[in-house]
Every structure is written in structure tokens, then in C-alpha cells.
Design brief:
The protein has 123 residues and is of the alpha+beta class. Helix content is 38%, strand content 15%.
Amino acid sequence: MATVPRAAQIPGVDKTTIYRWLRDGFLTGEQLTPGAPWQIRITPALRGKIRPDVPDGWLPLDRAAKVLGVARQTVLHKVQHGELAAVHVTTGRRKGLRIQVEHDRPGLFEAPTREERRSVNHG
């Protein structure tokens, strides 16, 4: 378990970023009681979410929301519940949160293609 200041040192971010990640569900932590210091479990899975480079096809939050046809908060909710994968990129101009988006899946408000409708009706 790590405190917020120690957890911030690992990816080299500010403590406020750690608190935002906790709020957004990118990190999970626990408090023994409300208002107590956060304790963050540093796991290999967590370390895997912090990368120096952007994986191919992963998008910034705004673009991921646009591609999926949903609000930014909905994307963060899906990350928090494990429905979408996210990583934090630590270096370069492309630093920040990146979301894995399936481009072959229509967004919430997009009409399916003719082929998608045909496969549903005849599937």
C-alpha cells in the first residue's frame, strides 16, 4: 500500500493527479474511514496502466467520447467499471490519459451499418 505522495512519485505526477485518478476510477484506493488518508495498492496491473508511449489506436478522452458518441463522464464511468481499458502516458506531447476504443463498434447514438443490421436480423 502506498500513500498519495508515494503513489504520485511512481509515474512522476502531482498529488492532485492521483486524487483525480481516484475520483475518475483510473486508480483504486481505500480509506479506513471517511477523511482518512488514501491507501493505494501498487500492483503489476497498475504499473501496466502507466506507460511511456501511446499504444496504437488508443485515444485521448475527448476523442474517445466522440468516437463512442457519449459524454466524457460516460467514458470515465466505463473505465471505472472495467468496460473500457485506459492507460496514462507519461512522456512527450501526447502525455495523459488514453482510452482503448473499438472502432468497429457503433457509438451509443450512431445507426448501425447495413451489414450490422443484416447480421443482427439473420444472425
